[in-house]
Write a structure and sequence with these properties.
Blueprint (H helix, E strand, L loop, with lengths): L9 H8 L1 H9 L4 E8 L2 E9 L7 H5 L11 E6 L5 E7 L14 E2 L1 E5 L8 E5 L1 H4 L5 E3 L4 E5 L5 E10 L2 E7 H11 L1 E12 L11 E5 L7 E9 L5 E12 L5 H8 L8
Antiparallel strand pairs: 1-2, 1-11, 2-5, 2-12, 3-4, 6-7, 8-9, 9-10, 10-11, 12-15, 13-14, 14-15
């Protein structure tokens, strides 16, 4: 929806319910799949998680997610009473996540920055666990991780759009499916989207109403909150949750593609 509907109208209430965004998640779970989006009030961040983690009360656990775009590996240590270093270790990107399952996850996109760079100081990199097995190489002029297809033409597999106020990263479904199959993983797409207009008229005492928005068929699990203004009209909305995306192909189909007996689509 390109324009914000008038405040107090039915269309404005529907806008805050974010049905269009939920449909966007469904529509983009195949084809060219968005992995990362940061634009105005919309944030999407994706990770790989072993399939074996999706058991028990995993939905409640994953709803505790919390991410920073630049989260990566780092090291830590602690000094003893003689100031000698001990407990030296390398920490995984999600070591301190409130979600226990996410401690086993692999980041896909890492937003890095370096003040010594000429021009823009921040840039996006892709986890080598994804780029190396698929022989992907970053082509600066294209703003994409690329490979050569069977005809020798350059194929843009992971596309990166990076502007000061807008970042998006997408991946071709064929490569995503291949990686999920090889690593026995699922793609988790976490999202947080806040909508509000200048005429909201909200205060600290504004009433809020929240509910679950679970779509088990499309594996979308979310919690939605609507804030009401002094006139008891819906004025702002927030949608936060995650989506599970599996490998679209059967084991037999994937084995035929890996052996060269058939070609992937997309």
């Amino acid at each position: 929806m390109s324009e914000i509907p008038g405040h107090g109208k039915d269309a404005h209430k529907q806008w805050l319910e974010q049905k269009e965004f939920l449909q966007f998640l469904i529509d983009t779970s195949s084809g060219e799949v968005p992995l990362y989006v940061s634009y105005k009030g919309t944030f999407i961040y994706s990770v790989f998680l072993p399939q074996s983690c999706l058991k028990g009360r995993y939905i409640d656990d994953l709803m505790k997610w919390d991410f920073r775009p630049g989260r990566s590996w780092e090291y830590c240590y602690s000094p003893d009473k003689h100031r000698a270093l001990k407990n030296i270790s390398v920490l995984s990107p999600f070591e301190f996540s409130a979600s226990q399952l996410l401690k086993k996850a692999e980041p896909i996109t890492i937003l890095r920055s370096f003040e010594g760079m000429i021009g823009p100081k921040s840039y996006m990199v892709i986890n080598q666990l994804l780029s190396h097995p698929n022989d992907l190489h970053f082509e600066k002029e294209r703003g994409a991780y690329c490979r050569l297809n069977e005809d020798g033409d350059v194929e843009e597999v992971i596309k990166i759009h990076h502007q000061p106020d807008e970042i998006s990263v997408t991946i071709a479904q064929a490569i995503l499916d291949k990686h999920l199959f090889l690593t026995k993983s699922v793609l988790l797409r976490f999202f947080d989207r806040a909508l509000c207009c200048a005429q909201a008229g909200l205060s600290e005492s504004s009433r809020q109403k929240s509910k679950k928005r679970n779509d088990r068929r499309n594996k979308i699990y979310a919690r939605q909150a609507i804030a009401f203004n002094e006139d008891n009209l819906p004025a702002a909305g927030k949608l936060r949750g995650f989506q599970i995306i599996n490998n679209h192909l059967s084991r037999g189909e994937r084995l035929r593609i890996l052996s060269g007996a058939s070609k992937p689509n997309g």
